[in-house]
């Protein structure tokens, strides 16, 4: 394993070609580090770090990792973990809001929590709940807990979610924000082979700005982004 070195544009730009950033689409991503044989890139525009796209797992390999997850909707500790996102988004919703839990996984605990709070919740997951009908509806809120780090094409995913939101709707994302570069190599979040993109607060601010969303960071690792209300004629 190599040690994660601080990102220095002046040194890396002279030895590595740039890539388009999959998060913000800027042609501003440069080599960041190689760790355990995996190449990582850093976007100078939005500060996202991501795995080289050529090194993503295939669908079967990815699914095999997900099958090892044990997320019990009745697990009190898991619910407490999800409350980090559930609590702030619930303060934003009107009674009986229509919500999509996007990337719900095999045990949609958050969907159960939101349903218990009186909301009309649908779920979608490409591996465990591939309900295409859920992707042609519109929603007052969409939640993504521990999902965004798995996106192979984040910009396209956020565009899709934007299209599913009603005017004034909220997108609530929970993912571990990357902090210090010096800790990256030993970070447990990086070591999951299905985690291919890592965000900072600045990353979500740019994601929101590109789509004219309002962005709040109520607590670390949670971003709440609101689609604008429909313009008044």
- Backbone structural class: alpha/beta
User: How much helicity do the residues have?
Assistant: 25-40%
Q: Order the strands across the largest sheet as they lie in space.
A: 5-4-6-7-10-9
Number of helices: 7
CATH architecture: 3-Layer(aba) Sandwich
Would you tell me the overall average pLDDT? 91
Poorly predicted sequence stretches spanning 5 or more consecutive residues:
1-15
Please write the CATH class name.
Alpha Beta
The profile of the biggest β sheet is:
6 strands, mixed
Please explain how this structure is put together:
The chain has a single domain, classed as Vaccinia Virus protein VP39 (Rossmann fold, 3-Layer(aba) Sandwich). Strand 9 and strand 10 form a beta hairpin. The N terminus is likely disordered. The chain is globular. The chain starts with 8 loop residues before the first helix and ends in a 7-residue tail after the last strand. With 233 residues, the chain is α/β, with parallel strands linked by helices. Helix 3 packs across helix 4. The strands form two sheets. It has a six-stranded mixed beta sheet with strand order 5-4-6-7-10-9, with helices on both faces. Strands 1-2-3-8 form a four-stranded antiparallel beta sheet, with no helix packed on it. It has seven helices and ten strands. Helix content is 26%, strand content 23%.
């Amino acid at each position: 394993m190599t040690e994660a070195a601080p990102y220095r544009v002046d040194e890396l730009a002279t030895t590595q070609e740039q890539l388009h950033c999959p998060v913000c689409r800027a042609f501003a991503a440069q080599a960041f580090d190689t760790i355990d044989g995996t190449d990582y890139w850093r976007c100078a525009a939005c500060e996202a770090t991501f795995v080289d796209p050529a090194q993503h797992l295939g669908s079967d390999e990815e699914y095999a990792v997900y099958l090892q997850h044990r997320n019990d909707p009745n697990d009190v500790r898991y619910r407490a973990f999800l409350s980090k996102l559930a609590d702030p988004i619930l303060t934003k919703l009107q009674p009986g809001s229509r919500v999509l839990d996007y990337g719900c996984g095999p045990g949609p605990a958050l969907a159960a929590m939101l349903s218990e709070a009186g909301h009309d919740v649908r779920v979608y997951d490409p591996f465990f709940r591939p309900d295409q009908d859920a992707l042609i509806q519109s929603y007052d809120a969409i939640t993504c807990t521990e999902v965004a780090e798995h996106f192979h094409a984040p910009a396209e995913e956020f565009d899709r979610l934007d299209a599913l939101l009603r005017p004034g709707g909220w997108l609530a994302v929970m993912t571990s924000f990357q902090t210090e570069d010096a800790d990256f190599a030993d970070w447990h979040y990086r070591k999951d082979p299905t985690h291919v993109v890592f965000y900072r607060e600045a990353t979500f601010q740019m994601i929101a700005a590109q789509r004219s969303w309002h962005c709040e960071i109520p607590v670390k690792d949670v971003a709440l982004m609101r689609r604008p209300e429909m313009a008044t004629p």
